[in-house]
Specification:
- The protein is mainly beta.
- It has a single domain, classed as Pnp Oxidase, Chain A.
- 4% of the residues lie in helices and 49% in strands.
- The strands form two sheets. Strands 1, 2, 3, 4, 5, 6, 7, 10, 11, 12 and 13 form an eleven-stranded mixed beta sheet that branches.
- β10 and β11 form a beta hairpin.
- The longest helix is centred in the middle third of the chain and has 8 residues.
- It is globular, with a radius of gyration of 18 Å.
- The two termini are 23 Å apart.
Length: 191
């Protein structure tokens, strides 16, 4: 697990399709540069060419694996088999509007065109989900998580009236670390 302060990195969100979207208070529209809300650039856009997530206070990045114990009748040893790898990234920012609530309510599995994919009962494909680019200050290293879906959303309220909210993304596709944003489309055989 790695935790970055908001001042140490910038976070860019893209979709897994070539079109982007701008989410504000329950609605989506074409990619614009107006203030507020969440901006999702299209997949082929460089992350730094789009708009960074505003007011990030923290980024929590975790990489883990799911193991399964295998035992055979008549043997005393236990074998561990790795089933899948998992990457989780939590973004925390100062709450300023209800755009993150809108994404949690209707866009957990991605944005299609300029609207949320509404079918939560359909199987995800290589064209669904989000791609998160965490760029360290100075642009020396970029951690890219492809084909992520939103796993949880929470809001914290403090006594002084300030509140923060967190979106947690999760992906089973291997992340990419490099000097630039990884914008190559996901191979369907990787899913």
């Amino acid at each position: 697990m790695v935790y970055f302060l908001g001042r140490d990195c910038e976070v860019y969100l893209t979709t897994e399709t070539t079109t982007g979207a701008h989410v504000t208070t329950g609605t989506t529209d074409a990619m614009t540069t107006t203030s507020g809300g969440l901006f999702f650039a299209g997949l082929l856009a460089e992350g730094t060419g789009s708009i960074a997530v505003a007011d990030i206070t923290g980024v929590d990045l975790s990489i883990g694996a799911v193991d399964e114990d295998i035992t055979y009748f008549g043997f005393r040893s236990v074998t561990k088999a790795e089933i899948k790898k998992e990457t989780t990234i939590s973004l925390t920012h100062k709450k300023s509007d209800s755009a993150w609530d809108a994404v949690w309510d209707g866009g957990r599995y991605g944005v299609s065109g300029t609207s949320f994919t509404a079918n939560s009962l359909t199987e995800p494909t290589a064209l669904t989900g989000y791609r998160i680019h965490v760029v360290l200050k100075g642009g020396t290293e970029v951690f890219t998580v492809p084909n992520a879906c939103i796993q949880s959303h929470s809001t914290s309220i403090n006594a002084d009236g300030t509140s923060e909210e967190t979106l947690e993304f999760m992906s089973y596709v291997s992340p990419n670390v490099g000097n630039v944003e990884y914008v190559t489309a996901t191979d369907p055989t990787e899913l």
